[in-house]
Amino acid sequence: MSGEVFYRDPRAPRDVQGPFPVDTLREFARDGRLRVYDQVSLDGQAWMAATDFEPPLFPEATLAGAAYQPSWLRWVSRVGQWFRTGAVAVWEHLKRVALFYWSNFPELRQLTTEYFTFLQDVGSRKELRVSAEDHNDHVYLYGDRWTAELPDCCVVCGEDADCDWNSEHRSVPDLSWALLAPIIGLLCGIAGWIFTWSAEGRWLIPLGLLVGFLVGYQTRRETVVAIRFRRCREHLNRTRIPTLRTFRKTLIIGVGDRKVWRRFYYGDRGMETPSVPPDFTKMKEALPPSHQEHKEGDGKPSYPTIPLVGDDDMDPDSR
């Protein structure tokens, strides 16, 4: 009998390994990866005991030792194997969690600024922020999918682009709970330590932080974004722009120049916000000519006067 063979643990029938060549299975048997109580199959459907496979997979010494082992020793071996398999699985899961947080560290740092707004760079204007409640015709949320169409210019420099439109579908991770869960776990650990108020309670802090990371990894989600944009010939290789990230029901699109920001919000009107506001304290008020000060020593008013009626005007003989 030859060809490639599947094998599995009968206690976990869905965890099928292979197929592997027969020589590879013999190496597994020598290393202890293939055990005498495992099952093998040629097609993945019909299974038999690994000890019944022909030609034999196990050395004769292995079969003889397994035959004469007492039942309690076989159970100890099985329990040890279970612990080893569980420890390996836990270690691999922890490595995946650590790799997830390490690879998404820049995005998590930017997400922190959404909660602590004083850390944001408000003067750059290189991000297009559109909420689902804005009812924007070019960027909107339909169901659980975003659709975005950027202005008809290069997304990197903001100048006119003569290249074709790019249409991409990107999967953007939603890291809201991935950031909040470790913080909540840390606060719960601190609260537990204060509640117990003992030296042993301090271990609740790293335990809460670890549980928070695990919960944040399990609650991670992704949002699909269909985006349409253009690049000029000079920036065809700037594939990192535009950048996409989400915060709750807000899509944040990172562009290369503030010209794209102006075109998105103001169209082709070319509106520009002054970088430095004018200093109104240095502006002098221009007085109208009618209110200019008269010369010194001149007692005559600068406005016409009306003569008053006196005694001379009342006496007709004095005219």
Topology:
Blueprint lengths: L3 E5 L7 E6 H10 L7 E3 L6 E2 L10 H8 L3 H33 L1 H11 L11 E5 L7 E4 L2 E10 L11 E9 L1 H21 L7 H15 L2 E10 L12 E5 L2 E5 L3 H9 L44 H4 L5
Parallel strand pairs: 7-9
Antiparallel strand pairs: 1-2, 1-3, 3-4, 5-11, 6-7, 8-9, 10-11
Q: What does it look like?
A:
- The protein has about 325 residues and is an alpha+beta fold.
- Among the domains are: about 5-95, no CATH class; about 110-175 and about 220-265, no CATH class.
- About 35% of the residues lie in helices and about 20% in strands.
- It has eight helices and eleven strands.
- It has helices at about 20-30, 60-65, 70-105, 105-115, 175-195, 205-220, 260-265, 310-315; strands at about 5-10, 15-20, 40, 50, 125-130, 140, 145-155, 165-175, 220-230, 245, 250-255.
- Helix 5 (about 175-195) packs antiparallel against helix 6.
- The longest helix is centred in the first third of the chain and has 33 residues, at about 70-105.
- The relative contact order is 0.10.
Number of helices: 8
* Element pattern in H and E: EEHEEHHHEEEEHHEEEHH
Q: Give, in spatial order, the strands making up the sheet with the most strands.
A: 2-1-3-4
Estimate percent helicity: 25-40%
What gross morphology would you assign? flat
Largest sheet report: 4 strands, antiparallel
Mean pLDDT: 77
Q: Which band does the percent of strand residues land in?
A: 15-25%
